[in-house]
UniProtKB/TrEMBL annotation:
This is Integral membrane protein. The chain crosses the membrane at residues 27-45, 57-77, 84-103, 109-127. Keywords: Membrane, Transmembrane, Transmembrane helix. The keyword Transmembrane applies. Coiled coil: none annotated. It holds the Pfam family DUF6114. Residues 134-182 are annotated as: Disordered. Residues 165-182 have a biased composition (Polar residues). It comes from the Bacteria. The keyword Transmembrane applies.
Length: 182
C-alpha cells in the first residue's frame, strides 16, 4: 500500500470482480431458475384482496408447490455455486417446471413455469469459456521439429493429419482418437 491509497476498493473493482464471477458460471440460468421457483412456491399461499373481498388462491397441492419452488431455488443456487453439475440441474429444473403445471396453479400462473423452463434450458446449453492462458492451435502446417519416437507418450496431432481417417471434428473413434499402432 502506498501513502496515497486508503485501502478501500472502489465500485469499479467490485463490478469487475462480479463480472468475472458471473462469466465463469451459468449466471442467467441460475437467476431465471430461482425467479421461476418464487411464484410457484408463493401463489398457492397468497391471498388477493379486492376491496373487502379476499380471494384465497390456495390449492390442495400447496405442499407440492412449496417443494417444487424450494427445489427450483436450490437448483438455481447449485448452478451458481457448483456449475460442474449444470446439466443435471438444468434437466431437473425443466422436469420440475413441467411438473409444476398440474401441481402448482398452472406453474405459478405460467410465469414460474416459463422462467424455470428458460433457466433450465440455459443451464443445459451453457458451456464454460476456454481458458485465457491457452492459445488455440494454428490452422497452418504442423511445426517442424524432431519426430516422436515409438515409445513417446505424446498427444496426437489434429485428426486431419492422420492418414486414413475420415473423422470430422464432431466424431470420435472407439479408441478415443489415439493411434492404434503399438
Amino acid at each position: 500500500m502506498s501513502a496515497e491509497t486508503t485501502g478501500s476498493r472502489d465500485f469499479r473493482y467490485w463490478r469487475l470482480r462480479f463480472r468475472a464471477w458471473r462469466g465463469s458460471r451459468p449466471f442467467w440460468a441460475g437467476l431465471f431458475t430461482m425467479a421461476g421457483g418464487v411464484p410457484i412456491a408463493y401463489f398457492p399461499y397468497a391471498n388477493m384482496h379486492l376491496g373487502n373481498v379476499t380471494l384465497a388462491m390456495s390449492t390442495t397441492a400447496g405442499a407440492g408447490s412449496l417443494i417444487i419452488g424450494v427445489l427450483l431455488v436450490t437448483l438455481g443456487l447449485t448452478m451458481w455455486f457448483h456449475s460442474v453439475v449444470r446439466t443435471f440441474a438444468g434437466v431437473a429444473a425443466i422436469l420440475l417446471a413441467l411438473i409444476s403445471l398440474p401441481v402448482a396453479n398452472i406453474g405459478g400462473f405460467v410465469i414460474g413455469f416459463l422462467l424455470a423452463m428458460l433457466g433450465g434450458a440455459l443451464s443445459v446449453a451453457w458451456v464454460p469459456s476456454k481458458a485465457k492462458g491457452r492459445a488455440a492451435p494454428a490452422a497452418g502446417p504442423a511445426p517442424e521439429g524432431p519426430a516422436p519416437s515409438e515409445g513417446d507418450e505424446t498427444v496426437p496431432g489434429p485428426r486431419e493429419a492422420q492418414p486414413g481417417t475420415a473423422a470430422t471434428g464432431t466424431t470420435v473413434d472407439a479408441n478415443g482418437g489415439r493411434n492404434s499402432a503399438g
